[in-house]
């Protein structure tokens, strides 16, 4: 136990034996960022006056939603009886959409603090993140958080946690990120338990890129963890995958603001700036080496995250299309998981088909595009990707329902996931029922403790990605948690439901759904549109159809009055201005054949069923 | 005259007209509108420029109103002459309100004499005054006729007591046939104004009102859909949910009912909200508005149009009087219409008339829109290919038709 370090190591001259690199991992909301706050404070790297809650959640969206989206690495000094140490702590996100951020962070560490809310116990991402850490052979320090809460049951959950990782319940540390209780002993324990990094200081440099961020003022900022050798300012460096060389303009550490220094040595974590403007030239997973003395073997990289959910993004004002492209290009610089390609919709005009890690990711990307580029966007109903085999042997990949082929389909395959649900055992029946409705099959079930079970399912991705989690939460009074990962695909009995306005298909409303759910979707969408589409000068029939077969119909009655039938005397100016205003309003309409559909109708029809992600919590 | 004034350009202090106003003047009729901005009580739905004694703090201004209005007539004569407009005899005069008949009959007839002496008057001129049924007597109507008024338009609004009450109308419905009979005796043409769609008014109530109006055997009927205007007491009550907003389907039903009852009684529609007995009983003054004629609007908040220049006066009677007393124009703002605006207005106005709009006046976009308007039953195929005229359904959707024609 010790107060702030009085003598901190200088970056680039830190003995690896004195370095401890660790991530804080946990289920969403279990208090990672709050615990990180206390560490920043106790180690003195953040001035008490500068301190604010979830200090490392720097993005507006993170602060508004109260969740972490991007990992953040911070260098902190810490002194124990054994001497002075340098800690590199990485705060990670907890939401399932951002699991890939966690795996990147873990690859830069030797240890992980596995945090568990002492009032909640183990939840699905606790398990998922624990397994990730184990795959990386990290030393795991089990910690119960929020012990200040009246509802905390640290003893009970210490048993559970110990059972999970195979240790003694007494080995679980107990802290409160809120009050700071137990945080100093935790730091001491990290120093004691986490192995120091090992590397060859004299070998050619090898540094792993674990993050790469575009900054308007400084260009691309690349975050690295040095394995071997040394990187120094102003030397030339090589990106091993592309052999591209760059000048190292600046190198330093984050503490928690960037501090430029004289380099980085074995085991150190920091950032570098080369002046490149495109993160693709500084790719996450790549290895950085010295140009003068290049390494021969690159470090093992990361797998690129694979998009799970697709949606079309369209500017409400068609003339914003180039601005949208530019904004996507820019966002892509910081978000390797975002993929997109241009597409055209008869109803919505020019836009992009985008792939996302999940609905929260979609929501965040959309919000950032709107906010940072000042765009108004429509996103189409999200869908997963389908592999369609035709009877004539042709195969195609469908990421947009409107591309679903009309001809003879031999087989359709849909992606499935391996899902883990953790819940009190009293909800087993309820959960089984829900998963059955969603075409799931049970793979196994384990009791984590007397009254808590882990259920493993194979489920179609399309069935869980939208409102499954909300259903699960509401049916288990909020007690169940969910995690999932991609697990190949399966043959499925799927059909495309089209929505027609006055006989014209509105591509933006088409959906691929399981045969048994086509009717429900058709009735729901037609009913919704009837309420959203304003009356026109003529009657507008709304139909839902599978192929040529109409499965649901509604009708928007013709408008009967649209005239100012009042005496305005000679005030013709007012009438003309009113007309001009009406014409402006008409410009905000999208024409589907002759039907004027207001943007709001598209937005309302397409978004509300995308499933509210409850502020993005999962 | 409607409440909020439009945004426009500043008007010149002397009211001078640009040279562009002169072109084609000889082909346009010239009318005079005299606004009388006083009422005994303010109706909850009304946003016209009008004031009650309480609003103005004593009716002093009302006594001097005719003098002030005379000043603006003077100004009008000067401005028109100076702009080089040919002198044109006045073909219509319209006293509107407010309640013109709150002024002594002699004020109205004196103003009319001034108009006649300044501009000259067409021997067939139509001279209308609006009137509330309880603001006239047999004697006052006779005196008006004597002084040169030819036509009276009564604000009947409804014949159903609970509807009149919702509209804050104070007159006894039985007063209407009496007032009409007096006007007839005085030799005046008679028009009745009705409002449909008042909250609480049933279709049967509306039928009662139209039937009662027809029983008075007027020459002309205006039937207006109740508009909930911003800033009125009615709007506040609708916003608070105390009264339902008028419903478009209900308004359409009532329009169709009125049109059918009026047609049965031999009336012909000539503008969306106006019907007249055949034989020249349409209101020529109002036709001037729809046909792009010239008129000078006298009085607070009054609007004028001369050759593509539209302007409007300040709203408050006091600033109105002060401006004129200082020898300045009371105009608050104006706009000089560009070609596109003139064309838009032309379509917007003419389409509302039974004669409709000459197809020649439309551009390519407008012409291209016609076939689907016919297909939707909004435009009468039989008037084509020369004219675009509305069907009954088209009248109810006239604004949509205008948007389609203007692209
Ligand atoms: N009472 C109490 N509340 C805590 C403690 N730690 C965190 N919280 C609260 O728990 C909520 C979530 O805290 P965060 O630190 O944002 O959790 P997180 O794990 O970083 O969340 P994600 O980054 O979104 O996964 C916040 O409302 C915190 O104030 C604690 O020790 N005690
Ligand atoms: C210029 S107003 C004033 C005439 C007269 N003071 C009266 O109220 O009888 C002429 C007509 O406009 C109509 N009107 C006034 N306000 C209206 C509103 N908010 N909606 C529909 N018609 C209205 C009434 O029918 C009224 O008779
Ligand atoms: S009497 Fe006519 S002008 Fe006066 S307030 Fe009522 S509706 Fe308006
Ligand atoms: Mg966090």
Entry keywords:
heterodimer, A: 618 residues, alpha+beta, 8-stranded antiparallel β-sheet, 6-stranded mixed β-sheet, 14 helices, disordered C terminus, B: 407 residues, alpha/beta, 9-stranded mixed β-sheet, 3-stranded antiparallel β-sheet, 15 helices, globular, binds guanosine-5'-triphosphate, binds S-adenosylmethionine, binds iron/sulfur cluster, binds magnesium ion
Percentage of residues in DSSP E strands of chain B: 15-25%
Task: Name the assembly state.
Answer: heterodimer
Let me know the largest β-sheet of chain B.
9 strands, mixed
Taking Cα atoms only, what radius of gyration of chain A do you get, to the nearest Å? 28 Å
Number of strands of chain A: 31
Chain pair with largest interface: A-B, 26 and 47 residues
The profile of the biggest β sheet of chain A is: 8 strands, antiparallel
Distance between the termini of chain B: 29 Å
Number of strands of chain B: 14
Structural classification of chain A: alpha+beta
Task: Please report which band the strand proportion of chain A falls in: under 5%, 5-15%, 15-25%, 25-35%, 35-45% or over 45%.
Answer: 25-35%
Widest sheet, order of strands of chain A: 10-9-14-7-8-13-11-12
Count the DSSP helices of chain A: 14
Write a structural description.
- The complex is a heterodimer of chains A (618) and B (407).
- Chain A is α+β, with helices and mostly antiparallel strands and 618 residues long.
- Chain A contains 14 helices and 31 strands.
- Chain A has an eight-stranded antiparallel sheet, with no helix packed on it. In chain A, strands 2-3-1-4-5-6 form a six-stranded mixed sheet, with helices on both faces.
- In chain A, helix 12 (518-532) packs antiparallel against helix 14.
- Chain A is globular, with a radius of gyration of 28 Å.
- Chain B starts with 29 loop residues before the first strand and ends with a helix.
- The longest helix of chain B is centred in the N-terminal third of the chain and has 24 residues, at 60-83.
- With 407 residues, chain B is of the alpha/beta class.
- The interface between A and B is large, with 26 and 47 residues.
- The structure holds guanosine-5'-triphosphate (GTP), S-adenosylmethionine, iron/sulfur cluster and magnesium ion.
- The site of iron/sulfur cluster (SF4) has 11 residues of chain B, from loops.
